[in-house]
Design brief:
Length: 159
């Protein structure tokens, strides 16, 4: 029973955040790679690469030095390293600091947030773009087939 849960299901899905199953608490220091399969929150220090197959929340006291890969990222702490969230959303809060390159589909940067690096915005092709590529590709294949046929029949036959 969710008597005290006041947020609706649509609000939870709008946030794009998974249930948090792994927490690196404030005061904890991890000197080695971190890989998790679900949502993760880091309030401590991680001195290695972080790979999360889910959403990653870096709290105000959280610090990561290394490459970060996640489905979604909410950054209120510090990351020194490249970040890859190619199909998800990156949100850097007003206390967040990202020093490194970023690859994401969606990016939100609050006022007073720090981001130093290059940003690559990834996009999924729309159905219209895909259809256009198929149509153009199909015509090219048809033209190539016609050229092959012309070459084949242009040579004289010897009896």
């Amino acid at each position: 029973m969710a008597l005290f849960n006041t947020s609706s299901k649509s609000e939870q899905s709008d946030a794009g955040l998974d249930q948090i199953t792994t927490i690196i608490a404030q005061g904890a220091v991890l000197d080695g790679p971190l890989t998790t399969k679900e949502g993760t929150r880091i309030d401590g220090i991680v001195n290695a690469n972080v790979t999360v197959n889910g959403s990653l929340i870096v709290g105000q006291e959280g610090k990561i030095t290394g490459t970060v890969t996640a489905t979604n990222l909410f950054l209120a702490g510090d990351i020194h390293g490249n970040v890859s969230v190619t199909n998800g959303k990156v949100e850097i809060s007003d206390t967040g600091k990202l020093i490194g390159d970023l690859s994401a589909k969606t990016l939100v940067i609050d006022e007073n947030a720090v981001f130093q690096g290059q940003c690559t915005m990834t996009t999924e092709k729309t159905s219209a773009e895909t259809a256009k590529e198929r149509a153009v590709g199909g015509k090219e294949e048809e033209n190539n087939e016609k050229k092959r046929l012309r070459l084949t029949f242009a040579q004289p036959f010897k009896y």
